[in-house]
Amino acid sequence: MKSGYIYIMMLLYSCMLYSCEFDNYDEPSSILSGNIVYQGEPINVAINEVNLELWEPGWQLKNRIDVIMNQDGSYSASLFNAEYKLMFRQNQGPFRMITNPETQSDTIVVNVNGNTNLDIEVMPYYMIRNPQIVLEGSVFNASANIEQIIMGENARDVERVSLYVNQTMFVDNRGNYNLASRNLSAADIEDMGNVNLSLEMPNLVRGQNFIYARIGVKIQGVEQLIFSPVQRFNI
Amino acid sequence: MKKYILIAATVIVTCTSCNDDEFLNRDPRNILIDNQVFNDPAIVLSVVADLYARYPEYQQINGNVHDHANFNEAFSSQDYGRHGNQDFGYGDWGWWNYGFVRELNLFLEKIAIANQLDEGVRSRFEAEVKWLRASVYFDAVKRVGGVPLILQTLEYDFSGDPSYLRVSRAKEHEIYDFILQEMDAILPALPANAEIKDRATKGLAIALKSRAALYAGSIAKHGVRTPEVSLPGGEVGIPASMANGYYTTSLEASLQLLSGEMGNYHLYMKNPDSLSANFASLFIDKNQNPEAIFVNDFRLRSGKINHWTLENQPRSMSEDGVNGGRVNPSLNFVQSFELLGNNSFSPFPIRDASGNFIVYDDQLDIFRGRDARLYATVMLPGSTYRGSNDKVDIWAGLFRPQNGEIISADQPGVVQTVDGTDKQVVGFDGPINGFNFTAQTGFLIRKYIDPTPGAGQIGTQSDVWYIRFRIGEIVLNAAEAAFELGDLGLAAQHLNEIRQRAGFTTDLSAGDITFDRIVHERRMELAFEGHELWDMKRWRIAHLILDGQNMDANSLVQNIGVATKRKTQVYGLWPYKIHSPGSPDHNKWIYNIVQPNRVTNSDRFRIGNYYSFINDEIRNRNPLIVINPNQ
């Protein structure tokens, strides 16, 4: 009898967890997704490091929706159907926005209606062309051609080129995202067209037979690096 | 007839009344009105005391003591989250306390028209509150850069459109200029009396001038390191051309204060026989202390007491159950104290040339021969807490030299059977990873710890004061400003004053003075006094020191004394007792560099952290407010 009472109470409690339609809003159902690209080629960044902002005009108070970039340069956000203004934070990300012909500024107007795909074309300071990372024995040898894209008054110099290795597929410059790294400061680079880096295989914290690596370029005055795509190696 | 009398009586009663002025206009019994407050000096003083109590602070001794562990000068032996996350929030250290600014402005408007006060008394109160208002704006400009400079109360006219009350941000240097001009303006109304420690004096006004001008000068000079930390409107960033002007103002103010014309301030030197005891008592001696310029004073059984001793006393000698030990100075900090002999930096020797552990007879031997401030700032393993018998019990385990085995336990002071006999295998103060209140870096804090019995009890606590401005800082301000202006001889002279008090016998020459020296001396002298964040910010080296890269024990012991040395993770130095019965080394000590295992991430100060985020709510209400760089 006593257990029957408990079941009745549990049933009543679980009823309380439900609610009727009147007091619930629909969840946002449309997904805006895409990549940041230069001439169609995705720009790789560190995960969680570069944000784009969406602002929905027309409301009394303005609050931004932060959208975080994945490390391969893709993004996605669940949104309500509406018109949004999209922009990047000032001075964040290894690229500059292109002036949008519609708004005559770096703001892009996005009309979200159902699932929407939008690739955002930007001007990176540099592109890592032809990145090659090979694992020879216990040494990673990397080479790349660092091509300067933005010239003229907005040009920025390279601060360093780095090779990062990590045990997980998330590889970048932050402390817990690389197991080992090799930095080559710009002063030591003779030819940006042919940068070579090598790095000893680090001690693995846990046993596994694969490892990831990629190349990053730090640009002076820009916190976020631009990276080559992550490569996986079997060891 | 009766009816008429009744009517007549009613008319008389309703149409006449008492003296309504007397009857209806009564003074309120539960509040004091402006006239009562601002015409009685005793009541005005209590209003001013309330305003003083709201003086803005960060990393003091009575707030959240864990804030002292935010930048890895210490480890927090209770609140481990800060050692496991990486980024500082853009909103950290934010400011928008215009409620307080309004109250200060209200006070100033009311005291200006108070006519029953003696003019000397009135103008002194006015000057004190102007000092407070300037220091509030100084706090604001350190945190968020140029802010709207509101110097009178804003009143809404209920017209339906409050937008005329919006004020845009002032330039960063305009806030500093305001502070400097205000200090000059209030100076005549303040007393020149070094005995007054808890109210504004001439000395305090000059001290704020010295500090604020130095900050402005260094932002102008070192801003070139981070050109992206600036806004086109000047709300953040000061033009480099203004640097020398500010440094000159700062140097003049410092020298004026050191000359003694603003009151008899000088370096605390009551105990020249023991310089470390002298430095320790500098902070707790409230009797005729010539060093203190402005303090936050406390008093037992008054309701205003502080918990610094309660929260940081050694756990092994705790007066409050098992409480204490929260702030553990890091090895990164402790190893930076110089050797006295030749003014040189050196890591603690733990292994000899062949890689064997060096054996020390006494726990304190490894620390000997260093800067006297080390022993006064930090409770080292084997040092005493109060008297000569109460040694702190900091050691991590027994070490068997034969096989390198370490015997330890996961509770403080545990006794185990080792080789057939019962032995204590770990100190009562730890270090034990993750065990709250043990010395998880191997060190405890001594600065501001109150040796009075009862100070560690929760029911009593401590009335040690907290010094907000002291002459030691002014000497260092003078040294820094002189260095930046190129007068290396003067810089060396002032640096040596501070260093002689720390026990250095060989003076630095003008040629030895570098930016690294200036930064290092401030770090050692002013540790745990709430300067570290603002100093790192104004020198624009925070993003280099806290760059988000992991550290290792090898890089830890290199480049000690370099201003931009990486300090992203806390390290500790753990003592072990040698267990080798029969050998001469039995019960002697070895040391090892250990990273507390709650340190799982490296701190990163991003460019956007230099000036805190002004949130969306504030900017929605006032769209004239521009956002800070890189957020």
UniProtKB/TrEMBL annotation, chain A:
Gene3D superfamilies: 2.60.40.2060, Carboxypeptidase-like, regulatory domain. Transmembrane segments: none annotated. InterPro entries: DUF3823_C, DUF3823_N. Residues 30-123, 126-232 form the DUF3823 domain. This is DUF3823 domain-containing protein. It comes from Anditalea andensis.
From TrEMBL, chain B:
It is found in: Cell outer membrane. InterPro entries: SusD_RagB_dom, TPR-like_helical_dom_sf. Gene3D superfamilies: 1.25.40.390. It holds the Pfam family SusD_RagB. Its main location: membrane. Transmembrane segments: none annotated. Keywords: Cell outer membrane, Membrane, Signal. The keyword Transmembrane does not apply. Residues 290-629 form the RagB/SusD domain. It comes from the Bacteria. GO terms for cellular component: cell outer membrane. Belongs to the SusD family. This is Membrane protein. It comes from Anditalea andensis.
